[in-house]
Structure formats: structure tokens, C-alpha cells
Specification:
The complex is a heterodimer.
Chain A: H1 3-38, H2 54-64, H3 75-92, E1 102-104, E2 107-109, H4 119-140, H5 144-177, H6 186-191, H7 197-201, H8 218-231, H9 243-246, H10 256-281, H11 296-324, H12 330-361
Antiparallel strand pairs in A: 1-2
Helix pairs in contact in A: 1-10, 1-11, 2-10, 3-4, 3-10, 4-5, 5-8, 5-12, 8-10, 8-12, 10-11
Chain B: H1 2-23, H2 27-47, H3 51-75, H4 91-112, H5 130-140, H6 144-166, E1 167-168, E2 171-172
Antiparallel strand pairs in B: 1-2
Classes of the chains: A mainly alpha, B mainly alpha.
């Protein structure tokens, strides 16, 4: 580990931070534009071409606005909560690989914050820490609506984390059959989705189907996506914020840059969740790079392009669902979580285990 | 050196959290102190290269258990005045004596030189196959029976808790829709 290696590590971290901030600027605008289109409105169109600089303008406005601090807040916790929201949001993306490792001057640089051998568990750990921000903000505001939002957030996070974890287990078990032993490292999970199902199964007719976990783990993907929407507190699971009932939920009493931090964390979380879905189910950065027929620079950049493209497809689904579905009632939310998703995930896990076992060891009676 | 710095920071944070748990007037502050302690412990595990233990610590304790604590505290109301009368007689004297004894033992260990600083990771230590495999292998081969029995026990406990809450003197409480 010399100075250049250290610099590369710092650069990787800085690049991930920059990427997250830029895509957030883009995503807020994109959501407003997409939802506007779906509702026959025009949406932001004043700042810059197609209004693309609208988020930047809003961000600057929030930065210079007065930060109102209500009299009944618990000041320490109240001030800490926005930071506690942003930090896990930024950290979670650190383990997601966003491009093929590139070679610069003899050094192989993985395009990933860091590759942990507990990558998936790290994601679960960070998402369970993230809920503290909402709970602390809700409680410390010293007002009724934020407290209700905070209480809802805890219950929702606990309920849907279980379903999300179980759908991840199915992927991990399936990945174990694609290589030598199981792994929780996201870089390894992506690497094992290379190639096509035709080669993997020995059926030439399926040569065009990429070897993504999506096809064998379709149900797990559905459960993961629903749980991801609930974990990021997006509509139709946005009971934590629920403008019509709770004003703004946990962030009612926040204003100015403190509110902006909650907003930033929410949009980073959407991007991260989509990126994780892509990594686990859609083959991460895998895609055709046309090695040799195009310049080396282009085939080095192409994996990142594929990754972003797939991520934006999922993000579009997030926005699409938000514009389409009305908010669930609280008891419906709990019923869906505990009576549908968790048992469903269990059944799928057992089914998928049985299939993996038969493929690995043959039928039990032979 | 990095290890020592990290240890000092996290150890101080863990102790500060632990003191908060006991001294805080507000139960929410106590819960947050406990969260701080549990999270600091996780960082110490990471410093010792026990990545899996650290992740489990954060997911299970700092994540699930503490979130549940906070949920319960908020649900039963945080504004109620707490009952501060002590039920255990003479517990302060007892704690004082035990605390002094513990302090003496630690001091004796330090003075006698048996308390040595053992660096966990010297240089770039390669972790063979990662710690996940190291834990999974014995857990699902040697100790599989104990593992399954524990799982069964937890299921029985959960079912028992629900049964205690829902069935009273042969009456089945109606489910509220």
C-alpha cells in the first residue's frame, strides 16, 4: 500500500459521493418531470433546458432559507437526526460495484467504493441504522405529527426488512450454485452473472438470455422491489410522510438545509436501492462491451453505462408506481408485509432451496 | 497505531453510551445511549477483523432490537413521569461495594502487568475465505443440531408470547379489522 494506492482509495470514495449527489439532482427533476407527464402537466421547465437545473435552484434556495427551530424540540437529537439520515445513505452505496474494474498504468482499479466480504449484510445493517434518523427526527420535534410519523417508520422498517432480507437469502443461495461456494460480496455476485443462460444450462436456443438472477429468482425480485419501495418510504408506502394525514410526517418541523438533508437522503436511498436491485437480479454492470471492435476506452466505459441504464429502468418503475398507486391504509401495509410478503418469501426460499438441492445432489430416491 | 486510535475513540463512545443508559432521565435518551454502545462495539469488532460479528451486531442489536425498544418507548408515551422509587433495598450500597471491588481487580491486573495490549491485525492480514465461511462451516456441520434446536426454541417462544397475549380463559379475542 503506497501513496498512489491510498490516493486511488480516496478517489474511489470521492467519485461515489459525487456520483450520488449528481444523480440526486437529476432524479428529483426526473421524478417531477415523469410524474408531470403522467398527470398531463408540464412540470418544471424554467431553469435550464427542460428545467433540468430546477433541483439546483431549489437546493440553493433551501440552503439560504431560515432554519426554524420550534421551541419544544429536544435540541441535540433534533440537530443530529438530519446527519444520521445522510450518513447511512451515502455509506450504503459504497459496496455496490458500478463498473467493470479498469486498468490504469498497471494498476487494477475496481469501480466500487470497497468490496466487503459481508457486502449484503452491510447493506442490511446500514438500512437498519437509517431508520433511526426518522425515529429521532419524529420524536425530537416535540410535536404530534412527526411523532406519529416516527412510530410508523419503526414498525414499517421492521416489517419490510424481514421480507427484503429473505428475498436476498434466496439470491445468495442461488449464487452459491453458480460458482465455488457461497458469497456475500457484491462484486462476486455480479461476476457470477456473466455470460448467458444458454451456456450455463447447455441449451443453445437460450444463448441470447443473459445469465441474470432475475429469471430463476423472479418472485424474489418482486418481493425485493416491493420491500425496497417500503424501505425507502416511497408511495404507496409513504405513510411515514403522508402529507394528507401527517402534514409532512417526521420532517414537519424541519426547514432550510436540515430539511434538504432528509430530502437528499431519501433520493440517495432510491438510487441505492435500485442499484442494489440491479446488482442482485439484473447482472450489475454486465452487458455487451464489443471488446476489440470498438476502442478500449469505450468498452471500459460501457459496463458503467449498462449499470446506470438498468438502474434508471428500476428508478423509472419507482416513479411510475408513485404516480399510479394510491397510498395504502396502515393496516393494509401491515397485512401486506406480515401476511403476504414474509410468508411468500419463505415459501419461495424453500422452493428455491429444493430446486437447488435437486440440481446439486439429484433426486432423493435415486 | 490506527487500531489504537480507533479503539480509544470507540471505547470512549461505548462507555459514554453506557453511562447515558443509566443516568439519562428520559427513556429515549437511554435507548440512544444503548444504541451508541452497541454500534461502538461493532466498530471494535471490525477493527479486530470480525466482520460478520460486526454486521450481525448492527443488524440484530443496533437495528432490530433497539428499533423495537424505541417503538415500545414511544408507543407507551414518553411524556409520562417515571416512577423513580427504588424497589431493591440498599442497592446503592451494594452497587458501590461491587463497583469498588471490580475497580480494584482491574487496577490489580494493570499494576501486575498482566493486562497487555494485543494488536489484532498487523499489516495487511489476508482473511482466508472471509469470516462468514469461518462461522458458517462449524455452525452448519458440527453444531447443526444445536442450531436447529435453538431455532425451534425461538419459534416456540414466539408462539407462546402470541398465545399469552391472545387467549385468555378460553376466550379468543376478536381480531380488529
Amino acid at each position: 500500500m503506497d501513496a498512489i494506492d491510498l490516493l486511488i482509495v480516496v478517489a474511489r470514495v470521492v467519485v461515489v459521493f459525487a456520483l450520488l449527489l449528481v444523480v440526486t439532482l437529476l432524479n428529483v427533476w426526473l421524478e417531477r418531470k415523469i410524474v408531470a407527464d403522467m398527470q398531463n402537466r408540464i412540470g418544471p421547465d424554467r431553469a435550464g433546458p427542460f428545467g433540468i437545473l430546477q433541483t439546483l435552484a431549489d437546493g440553493m434556495k433551501l440552503f439560504f432559507k431560515e432554519q426554524v427551530t420550534p421551541r419544544k424540540v429536544e435540541l441535540g437529537v433534533y440537530l443530529m437526526a438530519p446527519f444520521l439520515a445522510v450518513i447511512p445513505a451515502l455509506l450504503t452505496f459504497m459496496v455496490v460495484p458500478w463498473g467493470r474494474p479498469i486498468e490504469i498504468a498497471g494498476r487494477v482499479v475496481p469501480l466500487q467504493g470497497t468490496d466487503l466480504n459481508i457486502g449484503l449484510l452491510f447493506i442490511l445493517a446500514m438500512s437498519s441504522v437509517a431508520v433511526y434518523a426518522v425515529v429521532m427526527a419524529g420524536w425530537s420535534s416535540g410535536s404530534k405529527y412527526p411523532l406519529l410519523g416516527g412510530v410508523r417508520a419503526t414498525a414499517q422498517a421492521i416489517s419490510y426488512e424481514a421480507a427484503m432480507g429473505l428475498s436476498m437469502v434466496a439470491v445468495v443461495m442461488f449464487t452459491a450454485t453458480a460458482g465455488d461456494g457461497g458469497t456475500l460480496s457484491l462484486a462476486e455476485i455480479v461476476a457470477r452473472q456473466q455470460g448467458s443462460w444458454g451456456d450455463a444450462l447447455g441449451i443453445p436456443a437460450l444463448g441470447w438470455v443473459p445469465r441474470w438472477n432475475l429469471f430463476p429468482e423472479l418472485v424474489a425480485f418482486g418481493i425485493f422491489l416491493i420491500a425496497a419501495i417500503a424501505e425507502t418510504n416511497r408511495a404507496p408506502f409513504d405513510l411515514v410522510e403522508a402529507e394528507q394525514e401527517l402534514v409532512g410526517g417526521f420532517h414537519t418541523e424541519y426547514s432550510g438545509i436540515r430539511f434538504a438533508m432528509f430530502f437528499l437522503a431519501e433520493y440517495i436511498n432510491i438510487f441505492t436501492m435500485s442499484a442494489i436491485a440491479v446488482t442482485l437480479f439484473l447482472g450489475g454492470w454486465n452487458g455487451p462491451t464489443w471488446e476489440g471492435t470498438v476502442p478500449a476506452v469505450i468498452s471500459a466505459i460501457l459496463p458503467t453505462v449498462w449499470f446506470l441504464l438498468k438502474t434508471y429502468v428500476i428508478i423509472f418503475v419507482f416513479f411510475w408506481i408513485r404516480a399510479t398507486l394510491p397510498r395504502l391504509r396502515y393496516d393494509q401495509l401491515m397485512q401486506l408485509g406480515w401476511k403476504r410478503l414474509i410468508p411468500g418469501a419463505f415459501v419461495w426460499l424453500i422452493l428455491s432451496t429444493v430446486v437447488i438441492g435437486i440440481r446439486q445432489f439429484g433426486w432423493p430416491w435415486t | 497505531m490506527v487500531e489504537l486510535i480507533l479503539f480509544v475513540i470507540t471505547a470512549v463512545a461505548a462507555l459514554a453510551g453506557a453511562v447515558t443508559v443509566v443516568t439519562a432521565r428520559n427513556p429515549v435518551h437511554s435507548a440512544m445511549g444503548l444504541f451508541g454502545t452497541l454500534f461502538s462495539l461493532a466498530v471494535i469488532y471490525v477493527v479486530n477483523l470480525a466482520h460478520l460479528v460486526a454486521a450481525v451486531q448492527v443488524i440484530v442489536y443496533a437495528g432490530a432490537v433497539m428499533t423495537l425498544f424505541l417503538f415500545v418507548i414511544m408507543l407507551i408515551g414518553v411524556d409520562k413521569a417515571e416512577d423513580t422509587s427504588e424497589h431493591l433495598p440498599r442497592q446503592r450500597i451494594l452497587v458501590g461495594v461491587l463497583g469498588t471491588a471490580l475497580g480494584l481487580v482491574v487496577a490489580a491486573l494493570v499494576v501486575s502487568g498482566r493486562f497487555v495490549w494485543v494488536p489484532a491485525a498487523v499489516g495487511d492480514v489476508e482473511i482466508p475465505n472471509g469470516t462468514v465461511q469461518a462461522v458458517a462451516e462449524p455452525l452448519f456441520t458440527t453444531w447443526i443440531l444445536a442450531f436447529e434446536v435453538t431455532a425451534l426454541l425461538l419459534t416456540i417462544a414466539a408462539a407462546g408470547a402470541i398465545a399469552l397475549a391472545y387467549f385468555k380463559r378460553g376466550l379468543i379475542r376478536e381480531e380488529h379489522e
